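Entry 14. Ran structure prediction on the chain below.
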Amino acid sequence: SQVAKKGAEDLVERMRKQGYADTRVFTHKNVRRVVYGHFKTKGGAYAALQKLHDTTQDFDEAWVYEMN
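Output, structure tokens:
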């Protein structure tokens, strides 16, 4: 969700070290988020989310965000 720039950058670095290479900071209308992945379908996004939830507690509060 909305995070400070330094916190977002630190989280991206930590996630990349854990093997989540497609992690980045996304800013839209002054709201900054850490996002992981880019999916062609909602089903693909939700499958990846479930895998994150199953893999580690670090992503218990993760959710799918549709970007236009």
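The beta strands are 23-28, 31-36. Will compare against last week's run tomorrow.
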